[in-house]
Design a protein that fits this description.
By secondary structure, the protein is an alpha/beta fold. Helices cover 35% and strands 28% of the residues. The strands form two sheets. A nine-stranded mixed beta sheet has the order 5-4-1-8-9-10-11-12-13, sandwiched between helices. A four-stranded mixed beta sheet has the order 3-2-6-7. Helix 2 crosses helix 8 and helix 8 runs antiparallel to helix 9. The radius of gyration is 19 Å and the shape is globular. Keywords: Kinase, Transferase.
């Protein structure tokens, strides 16, 4: 594989729209069991906030050297303030709508001895007025970007995803979608959809052979008028379906430490690669390498251009 095209990617412009969230980690030590219930007591020693969901996709684009604009919805609260601060620190141009009717989506994880013991989620769907603002923001930013990424975590920001895809398609801008749920008709007209293995099974049912997967994937791709369909398959690697056929790449041989956010890293790498017109197979290759690095890190994290270059060498 060729050297990672960091210089070209530094000119890429990616627009990320989707469910923005804050990932909060409380790290501590477990030394005893609670006398109140049979649960471990975690003595918290360190706290850390990280960008999650669509914001983690944007953070990964920035880490790879691309220019990125993030569009999403936040509440008027402390978690929303953290997202804005972390976005600025990551070099993300943030156009984040404030919806005073909701709390910012927050995933709080408690870890003891580097093992996740508990996760608590806070989430609400945005109001219709906020969705109107999402539509307007996408239309406003389209002309200044090479590619659009729609990051769907089923938190409501992409409730009108059909109209967002239509806006981008009419402007001639490619659209990459990280899907949720089993109704993929919502994503009709996108350029690429990237389901993981379980999401693909939700959409087309279980398959018993590679031939059966290929038939179902190509039928889904044709039904949705997609240019490409990429199925990420964990330890089985990735499989790409286009009108020229099927391409598969095996997973990178890395120790898996935490899969949180690895899909965001894969999506971001695909975005910057396609923004500079790399062929689909090359884009999949770099995304596979980036995902392999990401699963070796704790929690939602980023992969940098330097890490990808080092991986190849």
């Amino acid at each position: 594989m060729k050297q990672f095209p960091a210089e070209s990617i530094s000119h890429s412009r990616v627009l990320v729209v989707g469910d923005v969230m804050l990932d909060r980690y409380w790290f501590g030590e477990v030394e005893r069991i609670s006398p109140e219930a049979p649960v471990p007591v975690v003595r918290v020693a360190r706290r850390e906030d990280r960008l999650g969901g669509a914001a983690n996709v944007a953070r990964n684009v920035a880490a790879l050297g691309g220019h990125v604009t993030l569009v999403g919805v936040l509440g008027e609260d402390e978690a929303g303030d953290s997202v804005r601060r972390l976005s600025a620190e990551a070099g993300i141009q943030a156009d984040l709508i404030t919806d005073r009717s909701l709390h910012t989506t927050l995933k709080m994880r408690v870890l003891g001895r580097q093992q996740q013991l508990l996760r608590v989620d806070f989430e609400q769907h945005p109001a219709q007025e906020a969705l109107d603002s999402i539509d307007a923001a996408l239309a406003r930013h389209l002309a200044n970007h090479d590619i659009v990424v729609l990051s769907d975590y089923a938190k409501g920001v992409l409730a009108r995803v059909e109209s967002l895809i239509a806006l981008a398609r009419n402007a001639g801008i490619p659209v990459l979608v990280d899907p949720k749920g089993d109704d993929y008709s919502r994503y009709r007209g996108a350029t690429l959809v990237t389901p993981n293995r379980s999401e693909m099974q939700q959409a087309v049912g279980r398959w018993n052979t590679e031939s059966e997967l290929t038939d179902r994937a190509q039928r889904l791709r044709a039904d949705l008028d997609l240019e490409a369909l990429l199925v990420t398959r964990s330890e089985q690697g990735m499989t790409l379906f286009t009108d020229t056929g099927r391409e598969h790449i095996d997973a990178q041989a890395h120790e898996v430490f935490d899969v949180s956010g690895a899909g965001d890293t894969v999506l971001a790498t695909l975005a910057v690669s396609r923004a500079i017109d790399l062929p689909w197979v090359d884009a999949m290759g770099w995304a596979n390498r980036a995902g392999g690095i990401a699963v070796g890190k704790l929690g939602t994290s980023v992969v940098t251009a330097a890490e990808l270059a080092g991986e190849l060498s």
